[in-house]
Write the structure tokens for this entry.
Amino acid sequence: MSKIFLSACAFALSGLLPACKQAPPHDKAAAPTAARPQLDKELRAELLRQEQHAPQRYLAATGASYRTPQGRLVLQGHLVSLAAFASYQNPVLLVTWFSKSYTRLGVRRYPVRALVRAEAAVPFQLYTEAPASVVSVGLGIADAAAVPESDPARLP
């Protein structure tokens, strides 16, 4: 029975081999069709629109805090853009104060005068007047203004 099975497999493969030889090779360096660049431009423009309308989704804030001898709480960190195409200006940093027991003591918004380009990080430093019982700080982005792009076709 194994000889019959092997001969059947050999017969099936012999029929496939000529078809494989006739198939054109896949060339990765082949030039894209004329419709492909137009599609890329449309997809990039759509992604740019999505990124511009949702800065909270594409911006993040990271950092640390320390107290000065005068009792002010200093926040240092980076505003990080996860957007592929959109740039943002003047983001509003959302700061949440926490106590030792991680009870939320308050929330405050701080505007940061900065331009955050796509896929980049910008450092920031803020001097704040926080309650004395603050032990830790949560950072987030409340809002930002999207920088309008003049021509989406010029996007990288």
Q: What stands out?
A: The beta strands are 59-67, 73-81, 88-98, 104-111, 115-116, 121-128, 136-146. The radius of gyration is 28 Å. Confidence is low (pLDDT under 50) at residues 1-13, 16-23, 150-156.
